[in-house]
C-alpha cells in the first residue's frame, strides 16, 4: 500500500499551492463527508478528494473523508486513486453539511514498478488468508486451500492423505465451508485418507479465502468449530494455467470482460505414488477427476447472474498383497506379518450446482436469491482376508497366528436442495445483513459390514458352542427432512477520538422437521483499536452455537445376540456450545519489515454432546445426546516478513478437551494438548528465481482405544504427529511485464518437493490382533514415508 500513499501524496502536492479566490459574494461554508468504497463495498484508503479550485484531502484507512469548502452555483468534486477509475461529481448550490458516498471501479492495471504491500486490519473474528502461493505449495492431497488452512493457529491435521482438519477441539463435521455464499458438503462414507479424492474447492479458481476459528458471525450456519468462506475469481481478460506432477494434473482457463466472465477448472489426481510408501504392499489404483465452471454475467448495472457447476468422479481400487510391521519398545520389538487375499473397490460421485441472481437496489444495498443443489452417490465395497503372524523379533515364539475376514457393502445416496434470500445494506456506520433459507435433505443408506477372526483355529469371540462374528452391522434407512433458517446481523463501526470501534451483533433462528426442534443462536463480537496505539487491536466474541445433526449423527445402534442394527434417533437434539473468546493483535516492525503477533484465548461450555470415535478419518457417532464437556485453550501466531518480500508464520496452541460420559471424565477424541504449525518462505541469495516453501507440523497424539468399542475405552494416546514438507520452485520464465509481447506465457515454474523430509513414522490408526487368551495388540498403521515429487506450472 506504500506505493498508493506516495502517489496520493504526489497528486495532493501537485495541486495549485494557492487556490483561486472564490467570489466574496457568498461566504457560506459547506462540509462534505462520506466514504469511498470499491465494487465489494470495502473502504479504499488514501483516496485523494479534490474540490476544484479550492483544496483537497486524503481519505483515511477506512476510506472515509471530510472536507470543507465555500459554496457556489456549481462545485466540482474529483476522486482520484491509482489503480481505480477517477470519479467526478457536480454539486449544485451545496449548503450546510452533505454526505456523499462514492464507489470506485478498479482499472485492473499492472503497476510494473510498484510493490503492493498492505494487510487489512482485522477487527472481527474472520481472517483473510493470503493465497498468492497456493499453486506453488508442496501438497500431498491436491487440495491446497485446506492445506493452507491447516497451518493456521488452532487448526491441526493428523493425516497427510486427507484434507480434513480439526479446529479447537471440534470434529471434521463441525467445520462449515462456503463457496460464494453457498454451503457445501462432504461425502459420508469416506473412512480413510487413501479413499479421499479432491474437495469441491478448486484452488486455481480461488480469489479470496476467509477463515474463522471461532466466534464467527450470525450469517454463517449451525456449526460449532470453524468457517471457511471461499470467493471465486472473476477473470478480467484471457488467463489460464497448466500444472502437472507425479500426483496429478490441473488445467484452468478463464475469460472476462466488462459485463461477463467465465472460468473453468479440470483436475486429475492419483495418489498411487504416495501409497507406494505404505507398509501394506499391493496394487493401488486411485483415480480422482473433477470439473468445475463459474459464470458471472452483469447485463445492466443493477442485475448480476452467477452460476457454478461441479462434477466429480472419485474411484479407489486396492488389491493388497502383504504387510510387515515392526513395533513395540527397544526391549521388546514385535513383528506382524500379514498375507492378503481379496480387494476393495470404492466410488464417490458428486454433483453440485448453484445459481444466484443479485438485484442492486441502490449504491448501498442489494437483494439476492440463490438456489443450490448437492447430490452424492457413494459406494464402499471390500472383501479382504488376511492371514497374520505375530512374533517377537528377538525370538522364534509365535505370539499370535490367525486369519481375519472383513466384508462391506455400503451404499449411500444424498440429495440436498436449498433456496436462500439475502439482503445487504450499508447505511452510515452500519452494515446490515439479513437472510432466509429453506433446505430439503434426503438420504438413503444400505450398509452391511461384518468381520470374523480365527486365532489359532479358535473363532473370536470363542464360546465353545457356535461361531460368532466379532463385528456384524446392518443398516437400511432413509430420511427426508426440511429446515428453515433465518438470520440477521449488523456491523457498526465508529471512529472517534478514543479510537476505532467495531461491533458485530446478530442472531440465527432455525427449525428442523426431523425432531421439530427450534434453535436460537445469538452471537456478538467487538473489535477496538485505541487511538493512543493504532498498532494494537483488541477483540472479544461470544455466542451460543449449535451443531445440527446430519445423517451420520442420527445413526444409533441396537445389538441383539451379537448382531447390530442401525436405527435412526428421532429424539436427538442439536449439540450446543456456549463460547467465549478474547484476543489481541499487535503490529510491529523489525529491520523495517512488518510483523504481526496474535494471541487468542477461548472457552467452550458444551452440552447435549453426541459422542463419537475416530478411526483414520471415519467418524462414528453414538447417535444420542449423552455427554457434556468443555474445551479450553489459547493460540498464538507470529506473521510477517522473516525474509524480505515473503510472508512466513509460526503458530502455537495449547488446548484441553474433556467430557463427562456415563459418570466418567474422559478426554474427547480431539483432545490435543499442543500443536505447532510453521510456514516459511525464502528466496535464494542474490536471485528471485529460486524460492523455497517449508511447511512443518508438530502436534500431540490423539486418544484411541480398541475397535468397535466406545470412547470409554480410549485409554491410550497415539504418538505425536511430526512432519516437514519442503518445496523448491525455480522460475524458468518471467513475463509478468509482457516484455515478450508475442509470447502468451506469463510464467513457467519448475518445482521439486520433498514430503516428510525427515522420514517420521506417523500413525493413522491401529490394527488390533487378538490371541486365544483374549489379549489384544495394537499394531500401528503407519502413514507415508519420505517421498520426492516433481512439478511444472505454466501460467498464461
Description:
- The chain has 796 residues and is mainly β.
- It is 3% helix and 61% strand.
- It contains four helices and 47 strands.
- A hairpin with a 3-residue loop joins strand 2 (48-51) and strand 3 (55-58).
- The model is unreliable at 1-26 and 108-118 (pLDDT under 50).
Please provide a brief summary of the model.
Helices cover 3% and strands 61% of the residues. With 796 residues, the chain is mainly beta.
Topology (elements, then pairings):
Layout: H1 2-13, E1 29-37, E2 48-51, E3 55-58, E4 64-70, E5 74-80, E6 87-92, E7 97-99, E8 102-103, E9 127-129, H2 144-149, E10 155-156, E11 166-167, E12 175-179, E13 182-183, E14 206-212, E15 226-232, E16 239-245, E17 248-256, E18 260-269, H3 272-275, E19 280-300, E20 303-328, E21 333-362, E22 365-392, E23 398-427, E24 430-455, E25 458-460, E26 471-496, E27 499-512, E28 517-530, E29 536-547, H4 551-554, E30 555-560, E31 563-568, E32 575-590, E33 593-609, E34 612-615, E35 618-621, E36 627-643, E37 646-661, E38 664-667, E39 674-683, E40 690-699, E41 703-704, E42 716-717, E43 721-734, E44 747-755, E45 763-770, E46 776-782, E47 787-795
Parallel strand pairs: 1-7, 1-8, 12-15, 26-31
Antiparallel strand pairs: 1-4, 2-3, 2-5, 5-6, 9-14, 10-11, 12-13, 14-15, 16-17, 16-47, 17-18, 18-19, 19-20, 20-21, 21-22, 22-23, 23-24, 24-25, 24-26, 26-27, 27-28, 28-29, 29-32, 30-31, 32-33, 33-36, 34-35, 36-37, 37-38, 37-39, 39-40, 40-43, 41-42, 43-44, 44-47, 45-46
Amino acid at each position: 500500500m506504500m506505493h498508493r500513499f506516495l502517489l496520493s501524496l504526489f497528486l495532493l502536492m501537485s495541486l495549485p499551492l494557492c487556490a483561486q479566490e472564490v467570489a466574496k459574494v457568498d461566504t457560506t461554508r459547506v462540509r462534505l463527508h462520506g466514504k469511498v468504497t470499491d465494487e465489494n463495498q470495502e473502504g479504499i484508503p488514501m483516496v485523494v478528494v479534490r474540490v476544484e479550485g479550492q483544496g483537497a484531502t486524503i481519505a483515511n484507512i477506512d476510506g472515509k473523508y471530510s472536507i470543507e469548502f465555500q459554496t457556489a452555483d456549481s462545485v466540482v468534486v474529483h476522486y482520484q486513486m491509482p489503480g481505480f477509475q477517477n470519479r467526478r461529481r457536480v454539486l449544485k448550490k451545496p449548503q450546510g453539511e452533505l454526505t456523499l458516498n462514492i464507489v470506485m471501479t478498479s482499472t485492473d492495471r499492472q503497476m510494473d514498478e510498484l510493490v503492493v504491500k498492505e494487510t487489512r486490519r482485522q477487527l472481527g473474528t474472520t481472517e483473510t488468508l493470503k493465497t498468492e502461493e497456493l499453486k506453488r505449495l508442496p501438497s500431498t492431497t491436491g487440495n491446497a486451500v485446506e492445506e493452507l488452512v491447516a497451518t493456521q493457529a488452532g487448526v491441526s491435521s493428523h493425516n497427510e492423505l486427507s484434507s480434513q482438519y480439526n479446529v479447537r477441539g471440534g470434529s471434521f463435521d463441525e467445520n462449515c465451508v462456503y463457496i460464494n455464499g453457498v454451503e457445501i458438503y462432504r461425502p459420508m462414507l469416506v473412512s480413510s485418507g487413501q479413499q479421499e479424492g479432491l474437495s469441491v474447492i478448486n484452488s486455481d479458481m480461488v480469489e479470496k479465502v476467509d477463515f474463522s476459528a471461532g466466534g464467527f458471525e450470525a450469517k454463517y450456519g449451525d456449526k460449532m468449530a470453524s468457517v471457511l468462506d471461499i470467493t471465486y475469481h472473476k477473470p478480467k481478460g484471457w488467463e489460464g494455467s497448466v500444472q502437472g506432477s507425479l500426483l496429478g494434473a490441473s488445467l484452468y482457463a478463464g475469460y472476462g470482460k466488462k459485463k461477463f466472465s467465465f472460468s473453468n477448472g479440470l483436475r486429475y489426481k492419483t495418489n498411487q505414488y504416495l501409497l507406494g510408501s505404505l507398509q501394506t504392499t499391493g496394487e493401488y489404483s486411485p483415480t480422482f477427476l473433477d470439473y468445475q465452471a463459474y459464470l458471472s454475467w452483469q447485463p445492466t448495472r443493477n442485475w448480476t447472474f452467477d452460476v457454478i457447476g461441479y462434477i466429480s468422479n472419485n474411484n479407489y481400487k486396492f488389491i493388497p498383497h502383504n504387510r510387515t510391521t515392526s513395533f513395540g519398545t527397544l526391549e521388546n520389538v514385535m513383528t506382524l506379518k500379514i498375507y492378503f487375499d481379496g480387494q476393495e473397490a470404492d466410488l464417490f460421485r458428486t454433483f453440485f450446482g448453484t445459481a444466484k441472481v443479485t438485484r442492486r437496489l441502490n449504491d448501498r444495498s442489494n437483494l439476492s436469491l440463490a438456489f443450490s443443489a448437492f447430490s452424492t452417490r457413494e459406494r464402499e465395497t471390500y472383501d479382504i482376508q488376511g492371514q497374520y503372524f505375530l512374533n517377537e523379533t528377538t525370538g522364534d515364539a509365535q505370539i499370535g497366528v490367525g486369519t481375519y475376514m472383513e466384508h462391506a457393502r455400503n451404499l449411500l445416496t444424498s440429495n440436498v436442495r436449498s433456496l436462500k434470500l439475502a439482503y445487504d445494506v450499508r447505511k452510515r456506520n452500519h452494515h446490515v445483513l439479513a437472510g432466509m433459507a429453506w433446505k430439503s435433505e434426503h438420504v438413503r443408506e444400505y450398509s452391511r459390514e461384518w468381520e470374523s477372526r480365527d486365532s489359532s483355529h479358535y473363532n473370536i469371540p470363542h464360546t465353545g458352542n457356535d461361531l460368532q462374528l466379532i463385528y456384524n452391522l446392518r443398516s437400511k434407512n432413509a430420511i427426508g427432512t426440511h429446515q428453515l433458517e433465518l438470520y440477521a446481523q449488523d456491523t457498526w463501526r465508529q471512529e472517534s477520538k478514543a479510537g476505532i470501534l467495531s461491533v458485530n451483533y446478530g442472531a440465527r433462528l432455525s427449525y428442523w422437521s426431523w425432531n421439530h426442534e427450534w434453535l436460537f443462536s445469538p452471537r456478538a463480537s467487538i473489535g477496538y483499536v485505541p487511538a493512543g496505539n493504532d498498532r494494537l487491536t483488541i477483540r472479544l466474541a461470544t455466542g451460543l452455537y449449535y451443531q445440527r445433526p446430519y445423517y451420520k449423527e442420527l445413526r444409533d445402534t441396537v445389538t441383539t445376540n451379537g448382531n447390530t442394527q442401525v436405527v435412526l434417533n428421532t429424539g436427538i437434539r442439536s449439540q450446543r456450545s456456549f463460547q467465549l473468546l478474547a484476543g489481541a493483535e499487535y503490529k510491529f516492525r523489525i529491520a523495517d519489515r512488518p510483523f504481526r503477533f496474535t494471541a487468542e484465548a477461548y472457552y467452550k461450555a458444551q452440552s447435549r454432546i453426541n459422542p463419537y470415535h475416530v478411526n483414520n478419518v471415519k467418524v462414528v457417532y453414538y447417535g444420542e445426546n449423552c455427554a457434556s464437556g468443555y474445551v479450553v485453550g489459547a493460540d498464538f501466531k507470529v506473521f510477517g516478513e522473516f525474509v524480505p518480500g515473503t510472508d512466513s508464520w509460526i503458530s502455537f496452541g495449547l488446548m484441553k478437551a474433556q467430557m463427562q460420559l456415563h459418570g466418567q471424565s474422559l478426554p474427547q477424541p480431539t483432545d490435543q494438548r499442543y500443536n505447532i504449525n510453521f510456514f516459511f518462505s525464502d528466496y535464494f541469495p542474490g536471485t528471485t528465481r529460486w524460492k523455497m516453501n517449508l511447511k512443518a507440523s508438530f502436534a500431540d497424539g490423539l486418544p484411541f482405544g480398541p475397535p468397535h468399542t466406545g470412547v470409554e475405552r480410549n485409554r491410550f494416546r497415539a504418538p505425536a504427529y511430526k512432519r516437514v514438507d519442503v518445496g523448491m520452485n525455480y522460475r524458468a520464465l518471467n513475463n509478468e511485464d509482457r516484455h515478450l509481447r508475442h509470447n502468451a506465457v506469463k510464467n513457467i515454474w519448475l518445482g521439486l518437493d520433498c514430503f516428510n523430509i525427515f522420514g517420521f513414522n506417523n500413525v493413522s490408526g491401529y490394527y488390533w490382533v487378538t490371541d486365544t487368551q483374549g489379549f489384544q495388540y495394537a499394531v500401528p498403521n503407519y502413514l507415508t514415508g519420505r517421498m520426492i515429487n516433481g512439478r511444472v506450472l505454466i501460467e498464461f
